[in-house]
Amino acid sequence: MHKTGTAWWQHGIVYQIYPRSFQDSDGDGIGDLPGIMGRLDHLVELGVDAVWLSPIFPSPMADFGYDVADFTGVDPIFGTQEQFDALVTEVHRRGLRLILDFVPNHTSDRHPWFEEARRSRDSAKRDWYIWRDPAPDGGPPNNWLSNFGGSAWEYDAATGQYYYHAFLKEQPDLNWRNPAVRAAMFDALRSWMARGVDGFRVDVIWHLIKDDQFRDNPVSPDWKPGMDPFHQLVPLYTADRPEVLDLVREMRAVIDEYDDRVLIGEIYLPLERLMAYYGADLTGAHMPFNFQLIDAPWHARTLEGLINEYEGGLPPGGWPNWVLGNHDKPRIASRVGPAQARVAVMLLLTLRGTPTFYYGDELGMENGLIRPDQVRDPFEKNVPGRGLGRDPQRTPMQWSAAPNAGFTTGQPWLPVSDSFSEVNVEAQSGDRRSMLSLCRALIALRRGEPALAAGAFEPVSAEGDLLVYQRIWGTDRFAVALNLGSTAARIALPERFADGRIHLSTHLDRSDALVGATVELRADEGVIIAPAKSAQVKP
Ligand code: GLC
Ligand code: MG
Predict the structure, then answer these.
(1) For the whole model, what pTM was predicted?
(2) What percentage of the chain carries pLDDT values higher than 90?
(3) Distance, CA 204 to ligand 1 centroid (Å)?
(4) Would the CB of 328 count as within 6 Å of ligand 1?
(5) Ligand 1, pocket-test mutation among 204, 206, 238, 376, most atoms within 8 A of CB
(6) Atom 4 in ligand 1: which residue has the minimum CA distance?
(7) Contacts of 416 (CB under 8 A, 6+ apart)
(8) Which of 133, 148, 177, 185 is 20 to 30 A from residue 416's alpha carbon, by CA?
(9) Does a structural domain hold residue 447?
(10) Measured between alpha carbons, how far is residue 73 from residues 78, 81, 84, 192 in Å?
(11) Is 273 strand, coil or helix?
């Protein structure tokens, strides 16, 4: 048991690996499982606790693995079943946990289930997917839109019906109202847990159930030309349906058949709807992913407001979590700039709740430049030129100044960012002031201090560009003061921190400095301050 009495997924830190881009071991230019295996020491040195792998299952790769053709297999691009089992063993030997991506909303159109379903209207698997007759004019059955552009309905000429796909037409949606689908998919979860997998990040969990009357979605008043065409309609009848919460509860019950596993849900919804996914009496997802920092404008007052709203909106006992980046969103260092990216990781690692790190963010990697002929993401191909493409945040991990940043000896599937000669693990490991050094110091401090790992959160009022709060565990306390602005600013500290010490600065140059009743923060500086009488040691 952890000294804070919390579960591993509560005090731990999650690190997301996009397997195609982490480390290639066989020179095909695509990252793989042996590659990940060879880089586990980086994760140990960084100090994270759990690794979440984006999909590694057999897939035609229309959506780079989010189109699954076999829920219990491993794609040969990534490795073998034996290599997967070896990875589980090695991850556990290092005291880490392994979380897999589970993609239940849809399958690949090449999944044997779909191939069987589309064979005829009487197929035994027909009802495993969502089929509708054409509208009277022969067009799609209703106005539902695909997240990746165009209608969400694809006509199947052989059987004269349309099937529904919330994403690509190569990703037909499963019919989760069918108990046979539930049973088959839950068995897939069991098979991975039996092999030692510690939990799942569930892809688009709020999408799983659609309206049983197939009503048209209402037109959105906020949409303007040039915006993502999907947002022309409010997805009222295609997502976040009331019945989905029962399904999440069922899924959680499957997870609970095994000890100490975690269920994380990918959910992009407003706060009050997000909270519903904890489930009545916390019988839903352990952690509905909280993406507020990903989308929020980077202003102290905005962040203060959303942090307080999130803390205040949690159900009793609901465990918070924070995410700064993922494979679908622009990188944090590009969004807020390299200097503020350091403040952002201090924020992520000092807020109350489980932090999720995206690979490369520990180096301050920025969005890569993708030339038009290098585009791989189907979203960008379907809806080009609007900045929706996700390739920039999926460029290869930068390990060293060696060719291709040490990622591959072959031709990388996406270009390595030009920044790699300076922004890489090797160079930053040798630099006491680097982003990587900052992340390691922050994580070490968080791991060692119950107040930061699991303590209470208390806001401290501040103005302008300053964001200030305390973390408290028994008699242990820390104050965190972040300057989101690009000019110096002075803050008055809560009384008990007067004459305290700066424990850690984002600039990594004044650990142990004494503070008075106030402290001056430089531009883009964040500090963690311990009270005067504290016997806490330096990280
Ligand atoms: C989720 C994934 C995204 C994928 C989509 C369809 O949002 O994070 O990468 O394209 O679902 O599976
Ligand atoms: Mg490879």
Answers:
(1) 0.97
(2) 96
(3) 7
(4) yes
(5) 204
(6) 66
(7) 368, 395, 396, 398, 404, 405, 407
(8) 148
(9) no
(10) 11, 7, 10, 10
(11) helix
Nearest residue CA, atom 5 of ligand 1?
66
What's the distance, CA 166 to chain centroid?
A: 20
H or E element, residue 161 = strand 161-164
Q: What is the pLDDT of residues 26-49, one digit of tens each?
A: 999 999 999 999 999 999 999 999
Res. 537 pLDDT band, cuts 50 70 90: very low
Indicate which ligand has the atom closest to the C-alpha of 408. 2
Q: DSSP letter at 178?
A: S
**CATH number of the domain enclosing 410:** 3.20.20.80
Closest CA to 165 of 220, 117, 219, 210: 210
In a domain, 224, yes or no: yes
pLDDT digits (tens, 9 = 90+) for 178-229: 999 999 999 999 999 999 999 999 999 999 999 999 999 999 999 999 999 9
Taking alpha carbons only, the member of 243, 125, 239 closest to residue 184 is: 125
> For the residues of 355-417, what is the DSSP string, one character each?
EEEETTGGGT--PPP--GGG---HHHHHSTTSS---GGGGSPP---SSGGGGS-SS--SSPPP
pLDDT in tens, 473-525: 999 999 999 999 999 999 999 989 988 999 999 999 998 888 988 999 999 99
Is 100 a pocket residue for ligand 1 (Cβ < 6 Å)?
no
| Burial label, 280 (beta-carbon count in 10 A; 0-12, 13-18, 19+) | exposed
Residues classed as catalytic: 203, 257
Q: How far is CA 461 from CA 20, 304, 309, 495, 524, in A?
A: 44, 9, 15, 13, 19
pLDDT of 538: 42
**How far apart are the C-alpha atoms of 505 and 342, rounded to whole Å?**
10
Whether 171 maps to a domain, the answer reads: no
Query: What strands, in cross-sheet order, belong to the sheet with 14-17?
Result: 287-288, 262-265, 199-202, 97-102, 50-53, 14-17, 354-358, 321-323
Same domain (yes/no): 20, 45: yes
Q: Is 326 helix (H, G, I), strand (E, B) or coil?
A: coil
Angle at alpha carbon of residue 388, lines to 308 and 244, rounded to 5°: 55
List beta partners, residue 389.
none
Containing 321, the helix (H) or strand (E) segment is strand 321-323
Q: State the residue range of the domain holding 467.
A: 456-535
Domain count, the chain: 3
